[in-house]
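In the current project phase, the collection of sequences with tokenised folds has grown. A sample record is quoted in full directly below:
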Amino acid sequence: MDVWTWGGKYFGYFEGKALFTYDGKHVGLRDGDEIYDEQGNYLGEVRGDRLITSNAKSSWRSFGFVRSMKRIPQVPVVRYIGNVMQAGHRDFPDPEDFNSA
């Protein structure tokens, strides 16, 4: 399933519960609607085909995971029109934010 940030930027895709950036990096694991990073820190959540981060959940933790091997990069899919930001939320991190991690 392809996913975009709340602001409309193509992020990447889910392969099962694993979230990958469009350049093939495994950056998150889905637990219900919430997504956690490799150390178990809350990253955000899924709403349809969009990703958003709740400020109130920033201290949430879950089990970490071991990253999968990098996948073959994809050409970023066309950008969507951004959604109006919901109160108490911020946009999901940009896929490029994970390049240094």
The chain has a mean pLDDT of 90.
